[in-house]
Design brief:
The chain is an alpha/beta fold and 262 residues long. The chain has helices at residues 11-18, 26-38, 42-61, 82-89, 102-111, 130-137, 161-173, 192-205, 215-220; strands spanning 68-72, 94-99, 119-124, 148-152, 180-186, 226-227, 233-234, 253-259. The chain is built from nine helices and eight strands. Helix 2 packs antiparallel against helix 8 (192-205).
Amino acid sequence: MPRTGGTRPQSARVWNYWLGGRDHYPADRVAGDRFIGVYPQIVDIAKHSRAFLGRAVRHLAGEAGIRQFLDVGTGLPTADNTHEVAQRVAPDARIVYVDNDPLVLAHARALLTGTREGATECVDADVRDPGRILAEAARTLDFSRPVGLMLLNILGHVPGYDEARSVVSHLLDALPGGSHLVVADGTDVFTGERFRSAIHMWNQASDTPYHLRKPEQIAGYFKGLDLLEPGVVPVSRWRAEPGPSGEPGEVDEFCAVGRKAP
């Protein structure tokens, strides 16, 4: 995505603001508050999305036995980052983070340190340049062994859906059988025009525009993969434990996890 300074809002920094982080500029806080004013549900989406990341990574590092992760569109470090979740389960897990925002990379390189047994690296690359992503990640990851490919809230920044699918296919083609794909992105299933209006406002103000996808489009990223239960669902519903009031509410971000056959 385009590189920005502190004068225009940037998605990773605004997302960090919504999650209660401290790594953002005044322009990000203004944009974040304006977005909340139009669409307050975004804070719940951000929190549920982060919780989904934790559940998905715990499954991959645990039951699925994945020991390598490629997290594209890292975002700013908060709590329970991919490497922290994975290395709690498997201290020898190796993680490569990918982003191209200078602030994200600076903070990631300073703060995203992992276990001695494993490895945690950050690379500078754009999601729309999968060749560079793979070349840089290959310095740390062994592409003859399964990889967990994480694409959370990043494919929506690719303007065209066909291009986004091409990015996913390019990355998956380089990974062996047993690898897993994890995707989450915003939708307009439940809140419709309210979310679309907020996204339109964001796109007018930011150098990192975002495009909502339909659940069936998210499902399209998993063509040819074995989709894990419960399939393509809101991030709040993917293998979440029921609370005292029952199932978590549905939010307008859908996700899925799929496995590439051996």
